[in-house]
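DM from R.C. (forwarded with permission)

"hey, sorry to bug you on a friday — could you get me a structure for this? deadline for the figure draft is monday and I only need the backbone to look sensible"
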Amino acid sequence: MTVDMTTVDQARLEELLGRVVADLGAVGAGTLVVLGERLGLFRALADGGPATPAELARRTGTVERNVREWLAAMAASGYVAHDGGVFRLDPEQEAAFADEQGPAFVAGGFQLLTAAARPDTRGLLERAFRDGRGLDWGEHHPDLFAGTARFFRPGYAAHLVQDWLPALEGVVERLEAGGAVADVGCGLGLSTLLMAQAFPAARLTGFDSHAPSVDEARRQAAAAGLGDRVAFRPAAALDFDGGPYDLVAYFDCLHDMGDPVGALRHARGRLAPGGTVMLVEPYAEDTLEENLNPLGRLMYTASTLICTPVSQAQEVGLALGAQAGETATRAVAEEAGFRRFRRAAGTPTNLVYEVRV
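My reply, with the result:
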């Protein structure tokens, strides 16, 4: 097909091509952010202060010519500042790219998205589109697991204990008194460990169907000195054991599950009397039109690459997607037998729902 250029609005075409140029640069910049992290370039610039390309190369044991080009690309992206031939990280850039323990760290997002789009995964994604059988979480590159944990960590560290749990009726009091928690779909265990640090009397178990993630969560718990207070076990959302639990939590994972209704129904059977289910989900409104914004774009992209195929690879394969919204999430909870559902808290990137029988 050849487009009749006389039907094309030239101004709109130029606007579209401008967005394409920006997006192509962003795709490449994401790869360079991951590369810079692996080589220690951001960290060396933060620790050692402003540097010429030659100085930064010496600090990191890299080649000046390659570093010079990397710095130029980062400066063009606004990720590194420069004055003449000297490059630096402004405080805001350092917070975003070099302070992994801080609330603004973003490098994990680049890591997870570049991992999800690797060439060796692309064929599996194409197959998922053609046959609907999905792409299992464990079929992805391990960078996806680490990047996901690093991407969510800043928000969880800033809000989970301080804002989200206190917004749930009576949950903090139960945890302080030694309540039991099941963290379902815990991944590398970040959310579980944050709760364990805040509530020494609580009994916490993290469950995940991906055995390598469970192994890494156990290592993280041991490194944090929490190995004797937190348990991690391989189990799916439909068959985790134990309880009764005062809190069953799902952190950014319910929409990834093949059978979220069955998962919540199983959780209902494991709750203690008066217990609570906490759902932390990506921020989303109920309609496509309301989600046509930068955050929605990011989440729809992640959902296409990761969340929807992961759900399709499981039984039922409901494929809620990362932008399901409150109405669809409420419907899942009600179908699972819960009568009380409310939006308890939120941030610009997450919504927190309290679900009760």
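R.C.: lifesaver. Residues 10-39 form the longest helix (30 residues).
me: no worries. The beta strands are 81-83, 86-88, 180-184, 203-208, 230-234, 245-251, 271-282, 340-346, 350-356.
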